[in-house]
Amino acid sequence: MDDSMNNVIEIKDVEKIFGDNAVIKKINLNVREGEFLTFLGPSGCGKTTTLRMIAGFENVTRGTILIAGENVENMKPYQRNVNTVFQNYALFPHMNVYDNIAFGLVEKKVKKSEIKERVNEMLTLVQLSGFEKRMPSQMSGGQKQRVAIARALINRPKVLLLDEPLGALDLKLRKQMQVELKHLQRKLGITFIYVTHDQEEALTMSDRIVIMNNGNIEQVGKPDEIYEHPKSKFVASFIGESNILEANIEKIDRDKLTAIVESGTITVYGKNMAIEEMVYISVRPEKLKCSITPVDGFTLKGYVKEHIYVGSIIKTVIELPNGYRLKMNSMSGTKLLDIDQLVYVYWNKNDAVIMRTKEEKIYNIIENVPQIKEVGL
Ligand SMILES: Nc1ncnc2c1ncn2[C@@H]1O[C@H](COP(=O)(O)OP(=O)(O)O)[C@@H](O)[C@H]1O
Ligand SMILES: [Mg+2]
After folding, report:
1. Residue 21 alpha carbon, nearest atom of ligand 1
2. Which of 24, 25, 40, 49 should be mutated for ligand 1, with most atoms under 8 A from CB?
C-alpha cells in the first residue's frame, strides 16, 4: 500500500519568516492517521508557530501543508478538519459548560436534539456529567481544560491540536490529565498533535516525538528511539541526561574504531567513519560503568568526586583529568567507591551512541537520515 495514504497531514518544505526572522526553516513532516504525535523543544523553537500554520491561524511563508491530501493554503481555520485546544482554555466566560461545549454545533445550526445528545456524549467522555450548568469561574483548572477538550472534540475533527494544554495545572493534576488524554486519544482514534516543552510528558504520552530546535526538526522517532539513539548532540542533551565526549578517531579495523578523548582511549563500533574524524560519543548515566582496574579497550581514567542520593538511585560524579564531569547512576544499596578513588570508565556494547560532528547540522527529511552508528566494547 502507498504509505502516503496513511498520512493525515503532510508538511512539505514549510518555512515561516516573521520580518527578517526565519522562525521555521524548511521543515518536512508526515503525520500518520490516528497517532499521538508530540512536538517537543525548548521555548521559542517554533512549536506554536508550526501548530498555528496547521490550524490556519498563521500563513506559511513558503511550502505546502496538506490535510487529508488536500492543500489547505486557501482554507480558513474553520474550513480545515482540525480543532485546537489552547493552554489558557479560551472558554467563553459568560456561558455555562453546556453552552461552551455546544457552541460549534450551534454555529453550524445542528438540530437541538442532536446537539443535546452530542454534548451529553462529550460530558461523559471527559467525566463532567452533571456539570452542565456550571460557569467556567466555578470550576478548577483541570475541569476547565476538560471542557475545552470536549468543545474541540464535539466537532469530530480529524486532528486535534493541543498547545501545552496542561501547562497551567499543578504537577499532580497534570500527571493525571496526561493519562486521561492518552486514554481519550486511544479510545477515539483521532490524531493528536501535542505541543510541550516537557520531555517527560512527551516520552510518556507520544507514539512519536518530533524534536525541534531553533526552527528546525532535529529528529522524529518513537520515544525509545529518541532516547536510545539520539541523532544529534542537541537531542542527546535535551532528552534525559547524557555524558557527551568529544573524540577523535585514531584507528579503524573494519567496524571497530579506536577513538581518543582528551584523557584516554575508548573503543567504539561504527561504520563509514574516517581516520582523524571528530565525533561526539554520548553515554547515558545509567549505562556508564567504572572499574578500579583497566578494562580492555578503555584507558579513560577519572576520579570519583561525589555521590548524590536521589531516592532509589545514587548519582556518582567522576571527574576526568581535563575537568569534564561524568555522571554515573547506580541503584541505592550498591557499594560506593571511595571519594578520590582512581577509576577506569567504560560501557557495554550498544550502550553508547556515536555522532558525527560534521553532521551536527539539521536533518530535515528524517527518512533520509543515515543510520546511527553504535558504540561498544
Ligand atoms: N507573530 C509573531 N511575530 C514575530 N515573531 C514571532 C511571532 N510569533 C512567534 N514569533 C517568534 O517565533 C519564534 C518561535 O515562536 P513559537 O512558535 O511561539 O515558539 P514555541 O512555541 O516553541 O515556544 C520565537 O522567536 C518568537 O519570538
Ligand atoms: Mg509555544
Report:
1. 5
2. 49
- Nearest atom (ligand 1) to Cα of 16: 12
- pLDDT for 358 equals 65
N- to C-terminal Cα separation, the chain = 41
More confident call, 85 vs 373: 85
Query: Quick check: CB of 40 below 6 Å from ligand 1?
Result: no
Residue 349 — very low, low, confident or very high, per pLDDT cuts 50/70/90? low
Tell me if 18 CB under 6 Å of ligand 1: yes
| Ligand 1, atom 25, residue with closest C-alpha | 44
- CATH of 242-375 among 2.30.30.30, 3.30.70.3180, 2.40.50.140, 2.60.40.1180: 2.40.50.140
pLDDT in tens, 303-324: 999 999 988 899 999 999 989 9
Q: Relative to the alpha carbon of 167, which ligand is closest?
A: 2
Hey, how many other C-beta atoms are within 10 angstroms of the C-beta on 244?
A: 16
Element (H, E) at 99: helix 97-107
pLDDT (tens digit per residue) in 8-57: 999 999 999 999 999 999 999 999 999 999 999 999 999 999 999 999 99
Mutate to test the pocket of ligand 1, among 15, 18, 59 (most ligand atoms within 8 A of CB): 18
The pLDDT of residue 367 is: 32
Measured CA to CA in angstroms, residue 89 lies from 45, 145, 201 at distances of 22, 6, 19
Q: Tens digits of per-residue pLDDT, 266-280?
A: 887 777 788 888 889
For the segment(s) 3-228, the CATH number from 3.40.50.300, 3.60.15.10, 3.10.20.30, 3.50.50.60 is 3.40.50.300
Establish whether domains 3-228 and 242-375 are of one fold. no
User: For residue 56, which amino acid is it?
Assistant: G
Question: Separation of 164 CA from ligand 1 center, angstroms?
Answer: 15
Alpha-carbon distance of 285 to 298, in angstroms, equals 17
Task: Measure the CA angle with vertex 54, ends 51 and 56; round to 5°.
Answer: 105
Instruction: Give residue limits of the domains in the chain.
Output: 3-228, 242-375
- Atom 3 in ligand 1: residue holding the nearest Cα: 18
Could you tell me the three cell numbers for 190?
483521532
Ligand nearest the Cα atom of residue 39: 1
Q: Which three cell numbers stand for residue 21?
A: 526572522
